[in-house]
Amino acid sequence: MKTASQRKKDPELVRRTLLDCAMRLALEHGPAGLTVQAVAEAAGVTKGGLFHHFPSKQALVEGLFADLVEKLDADIEAAMAKDPQPRGSFTRAYVRATFDDLPQGQGNPAAALYVSALAEPSVLRMWADWFTARLERHRATDDEPSLEIVRMAADGAWLAHLMRADGAAVPDAAGLRERLIAMTLTD
Amino acid sequence: MKTASQRKKDPELVRRTLLDCAMRLALEHGPAGLTVQAVAEAAGVTKGGLFHHFPSKQALVEGLFADLVEKLDADIEAAMAKDPQPRGSFTRAYVRATFDDLPQGQGNPAAALYVSALAEPSVLRMWADWFTARLERHRATDDEPSLEIVRMAADGAWLAHLMRADGAAVPDAAGLRERLIAMTLTD
DNA sequence: CGCAACATACCAACCAAAAGGTATGTTGCA
DNA sequence: TGCAACATACCTTTTGGTTGGTATGTTGCG
């Protein structure tokens, strides 16, 4: 991004750039690398400029995760639209979205980002609210213990993926994914 | 702990106290609350005293997780000793240990501790090494996809427990646990 | 329209606090 | 006495955050 004097004023773009850069930095260097200084610099803005858009660092982090939840929600919605079978459709979509959204590239700082952000009560609340709301909405089709186990296994796979030491990939992610989806149909 | 002038010199005890206090602080306030100052203070020692036992903060964190892995390993070993059925015995023990070691009390900063510590490559390596070694050792009895799913579901349950917003407990942890164990027997 | 009045979007410099770490003492046990 | 086990005091860096100012729009009014 060019410096402010060279570009047209476009606060919405700056806001987006800040969020994008924050996400990139956090994924690459973990939560310790997510400093307002670094984010502002990466976005071609000064710290003061950042604080104009986000009144505090917490607000920035909240914006980050609001984006993330929104994206996950959209992916799940899309996956559900293509699923003819009603029973377990949310669980299948959850599995698909979880496996598809695995951040590729270097994986270990990403884990720290996600879960350490959940130390922030406001972020934790965001996630919990979203999840319980979806669970409530699809209670009729996805409220079975066997499906809960599938979702938890997906979470576990997500965690395993994030925590894999250096290149060591998760053995057979695709096969695992299909197996979990099959579990929602045959039970 | 009394101050140094009032107590007998007992470096081993001080070391243990430091690790225990560090664990407590991290569980209560998350990784951000795990400062050498706070740990030393809580243990009734000054910062200089802490740095005498642990040459750096990273060393302290590594000691913390070495303890954790050791405890988990002991629990799994104990659970396996009481399990007559060979097939899936490691997976069952893993499930039992995972559910039994759920840190009670307020849970959200704990999640941050665990996973953010895994941003430290040395800690991540510790965990990965332990896990792959156990997997290799029990390859004959626990190398089936269905058992892998059970272990991942246990991880997911662990994550869900850590991430529950304020009091909201995981619905039916005990039932879930039994269900997972049953899955290792009936498949 | 044209221009003053105001609001928005930034920048540059600075600040207090807290962090990890070190250098140098002091104390107590063998 | 000598060394391990601490305490005290200090340093450096980095952090989130603030302050005052400036450039760029936007709006109301004669």
Describe the structure.
Two copies of one chain form a homodimer. The first copy, chain A, has 187 residues and is mainly α. Chain A has two domains: 55 residues, Orthogonal Bundle (Arc Repressor Mutant, subunit A), CATH 1.10.10; 126 residues. Helix content of chain A is 72%, strand content 0%. The first copy, chain A, contains ten helices and no strands. In chain A, helix 1 packs across helix 2, helix 4 packs parallel to helix 7 and helix 5 packs antiparallel against helix 10. The radius of gyration of chain A is 19 Å and the shape is elongated. The N terminus of chain A is likely disordered. Chain B binds a DNA duplex (30 and 30 nucleotides) through helix 3. Chains A, B: This is Transcriptional regulator. Chains A, B: It comes from Methylobacterium oxalidis.
Give the helices and strands, then pairings.
Two copies of one chain form a homodimer.
Chain A: H1 11-29, H2 36-42, H3 47-53, H4 57-81, H5 89-100, H6 108-117, H7 121-137, H8 139-142, H9 145-163, H10 173-186
Helix pairs in contact in A: 1-2, 1-4, 1-6, 4-5, 4-7, 5-9, 5-10, 9-10
The structure holds a DNA duplex (30 and 30 nucleotides).
* Amino-to-carboxy terminus distance of chain A: 52 Å
State the secondary-structure class of chain A: mainly alpha
Number of helices of chain A: 10
Oligomer: homodimer
Average pLDDT over all residues of chain A: 87
Binned strand content of chain A: under 5%
| Inertia-based shape of chain A | elongated
The main β sheet of chain A shows up as: none
- Residue windows where pLDDT falls under 50 for at least 5 positions of chain A: 1-7
Largest interface: A-B, 40 and 40 residues
Residues in helices of chain A, as a percent range: over 70%
Radius of gyration of chain A: 19 Å
Strand tally of chain A is 0
Provide the number of structural domains of chain A: 2
Helices and strands of chain A, in N-to-C order? HHHHHHHHHH
Keywords (chains A, B): DNA-binding
Protein name (chains A, B): Transcriptional regulator
GO molecular function, one term (chains A, B): transcription cis-regulatory region binding
Pfam family, one (chains A, B): TetR_C_28
